[in-house]
Amino acid sequence: MRTLIADRDELFVESLESHLLRNGHVARSATSAVECVDILREFVPDVLVLDCELLWGGWQGVVALMGETPRLFGTLIILVADEDPRGGLSRSFGLPTPAWLRKPYRLTDLLTLIENRSHSVAVSETASDGSGAVNLRSGVQ
């Protein structure tokens, strides 16, 4: 699993990246939106863990770029925020509805969403009415 973690908490990012690498994932990390966009130009993740308080461009800029980059359309986005930010997400980006984790969250909740990505691809991509994608990508509280 290829994972990009974009969070302004540098210690958390390093810890999560290290955990993922030890467990066989390919992981990259960013601590700002600018750094995240730079990484996305060369690295196509299966999962993007995106802190909604990301500095220097914000999460909306990252999602907008992804919506304009066809090779990133299959990336599952997990938004991390105090409140569900998905209501302000423009449908024009053409991306699947992101998952959402409420801050603070347990690392196990995040890892479960990341691990489920490898098992849910077939279901979410074949759900004709979108119900599979909605169920698999609902917020964890």
- Number of distinct helices: 5
Distance between the termini: 24 Å
Total of domains: 1
CATH classification, class level: Alpha Beta
- Summing up helix and strand content along with how strands pair, one would put the structural category as alpha/beta
List the helices and strands and how they pair.
Blueprint: E1 2-6, H1 10-22, E2 26-30, H2 33-40, E3 47-51, H3 58-67, E4 76-81, E5 99-102, H4 107-126, H5 131-136
Parallel strand pairs: 1-2, 1-3, 3-4, 4-5
Helix pairs in contact: 2-3
What does this entry look like structurally?
The structure is a single chain. This protein is α/β, with parallel strands linked by helices and 141 residues long. It has a single domain (2-136), classed as Response regulator (Rossmann fold). Helices cover 40% and strands 18% of the residues. The chain has five helices and five strands, in the order E-H-E-H-E-H-E-E-H-H. It has a five-stranded parallel sheet with strand order 2-1-3-4-5, sandwiched between helices. The longest helix is centred in the C-terminal third of the chain and has 20 residues, at 107-126. The chain is globular, with a radius of gyration of 14 Å. The two termini are 24 Å apart. The model is unreliable at 122-141 (pLDDT under 50).
Can I get a quick summary?
Helix 2 (33-40) packs parallel to helix 3. Strand 1 (2-6), helix 1 (10-22) and strand 2 form a beta-alpha-beta unit.
Jot down its keywords:
141 residues; Rossmann fold; disordered C terminus
